[in-house]
Structure formats: structure tokens, C-alpha cells
Amino acid sequence: MRWTLALLATLAACADDRGPQDILEDAAVVSVDAAPEPGRCRPSLCAWHLVPSGTTASLLAFVRASGELRASTSDGRWLAPTPDGTAWAPDDRQRPAATSYAELDAIAVATVAGVTSVQRSDDSGLTFKEEFTGTSSPMAQVINAYGTLVAVGGPPLAVRWTEGVRRWNDFLDLPRFPTGSALYGLVACSALEDPFVTVAVGTSAGRALIIRSENFSAAWTIQPTAATATASTLRAVAWNGRVPGVIVAVGDGGAILWSADGITWAAADSGTTTDLVAVHAAGGIFVAAGRGGVVSVSADGKAWTAGTAGTADLAAVGSDGTRMLVGGAGGVLYASDPP
Q: Which of 55, 64, 59 shows the shortest CA–CA distance to 90?
């Protein structure tokens, strides 16, 4: 039995490394198998198949560049899929080794691992120049949060924002955090009836850290149930695009937390103790990936099934609108079975 879920931009939107125009696979129709029993893998996501990537450079992230799916790489030669999606190949343009990428009109911004500045383009990603964010913190992720570019990083913990001008600003209402605190993941979610909510995840004082803001008009607040649920550093966060929906954060030691509102968080059993560094949602399905090829899949963010896609460390999770994709060290790229 199969069903089809159409994700429409007019109903709800969630921004991670994409702009609001890229509504969970560009508002594509994603077909998936009917929901399995809790704790069991969807048949189309139980097996992962190696896809030729055309590179030995590590895949860092799947991004949307001018609406087109790309994989950023450690050598800056981003990958593009063939029309049938059976193979990928580097394009002929040199770009940043981006761990995340976001666009705002003709402006594009990329973060690079361990670097305090960002890479900025004013010509829709054709050329990039270094831009300082006004902080000594390495920037980990940037998103388009409904017309505002927001970047997080650390240590020391930093949250910066710009509306496109060449100036990055502090959030004046950000709480004070202990030395060594950092944020690594960020997601913004909204529905027509509610303010959009931005959630950032990381670590502080040896525990998980999650902070939350509504519309950027209210103060960023620490969500204490996250630290209670796990001591693990959280590395990434995603939303399933549903209204009401589920937000999932993943991190070290296989940690997974889920929440319906970004306020109250509970731990889920990921099925692994291996570090998880990336998570993505499409068609209501979550896929988390991490070290040693570990992949964990969930239909609701609460019950997870762990498996593997090869043995290389994985750093990127995405979707081409039909299949889920994972990629990582040495240019490995795996795709799930088509539904």
C-alpha cells in the first residue's frame, strides 16, 4: 500500500539551509510507503544503494542553489545529479566548501567548517567573497528564516543575523552562556495561523542545549527539558513540515530528541550509540546519519530504526524529491530505494 503526500507552500513552510521558496523539496509531491508499525523501517528506506558521485572529495551538505539540488564538497567542486538521478558529477564552478548554504534574493551565504567568517555572493552564487560576521566564533550553520539570514556557531556561542546588508548583528536578548557553549544546528518553522519558531541546538555546560525564539520578536529562551533529556552535544535539527508537526534534534552518542512545539523535549531511542551529525525530513520522514555509515529512519520522530549505508562517515542528508540521500567521506553517496 502506498500513499502520496503533497507539501504545499501555502499551507506551511520550514527553512533550514533552504529559503522559504524551497518548501520541503520545492513543494514537490513525495511518494512513500504507507506507515509501518512503530520501530520498523519503511521498505523503501531499509536498503541504501551506492550512487556514483564522480569525486573522492567528502560530501559536506545537500543544498538548494537557485532552486537546484546540489551536494557541496570539501574541494569546492559541487556535485549535480544527472537528469535520471542515477549518478552525480562535479560542476565546472569553484565554490565554498560549504557546511551550510542559504539564499536571500540574489544574495547567497555559505558557512565553512572552523571559519569565523562566512562566504557571501551578491550574484546568485556565481562568485563568493569572505564576509566577517563580527564574532570570533566559527560559524556552523546559516539559514534563511523567512527573509532574515541567521547564522549560529561557537564556541563561544554566537547567533548573528542580517537582512542582506553587509552587516551582521547580535540578538540583544540572547541569554548569557558558560564558556565553551556552542550552537551547531538551526531550523525555522511556521504555519499560517502561528508565528514562525526558530530553534537552535548545541551544547552548554556539558549538557544538550536548545534555544527557541518566536518571530525574533520575543527573547531567545533556553529549553531546560533538552538538558534533562540528554547530556550529549546536539549537532543538527529538522522539522517534518506538518501542521501540527514534530521537530527532531540529533547528536553525539546516537542522541535523538523530539518536540511538538520546540519547548518540551523528550528522548527517543535511535537504535545506535554512534554519533549522529545530520538529519533531514521530507514527505514526513526523518533520516539521521553519522559516523561509520550509520543511518536511522523514523516516520514520526519518536520511533526509529537504525541501519547502515556503507562504512564511511556520513555528514550530509537530503532528498531529490523521490529518494532520500546520504553522503560523506571519500565522496560516498547513497540513495534509498524509490518508493
A: 55
Band the pLDDT of 9: cuts 50, 70, 90: very low
- Is residue 11 pLDDT above 60, yes or no? no
Rounded to the nearest 5°, which phi and psi values hold at 337? -60, 145
What b-and-e string marks burial along 194-210, b requiring 16 or more CB atoms within 10 Å of the CB? eebbbbbbbbbeebbbb
In terms of Cβ atoms closer than 10 Å to its own Cβ (0-12, 13-18, 19+), residue 320 is middle
Q: Tell me the three state secondary structure of residue 69.
A: strand
Indicate whether 177 pLDDT > 90: yes
User: Residue 121: beta bridge partners?
Assistant: 108
CA gap 83, 265 in Å, rounded: 40
CB 128 within 8 A of CB 120: yes
Burial of 2 (0-12, 13-18, 19+ CB in 10 A): exposed
Domain covering 38-336 in this structure, CATH number = 2.130.10.10
Q: Give the residue among 249, 262, 191, 247 at the shortest CA–CA distance from 13.
A: 191
Q: Residue ranges per domain, the chain? A: 38-336
In tens, the pLDDT along 186-216 reads 999 976 446 789 999 999 999 999 999 988 7
**Chain-centre distance for alpha carbon 188:** 11
Least confident segment among 58-62, 204-208, 216-220: 216-220
241 in helix, strand or coil? coil
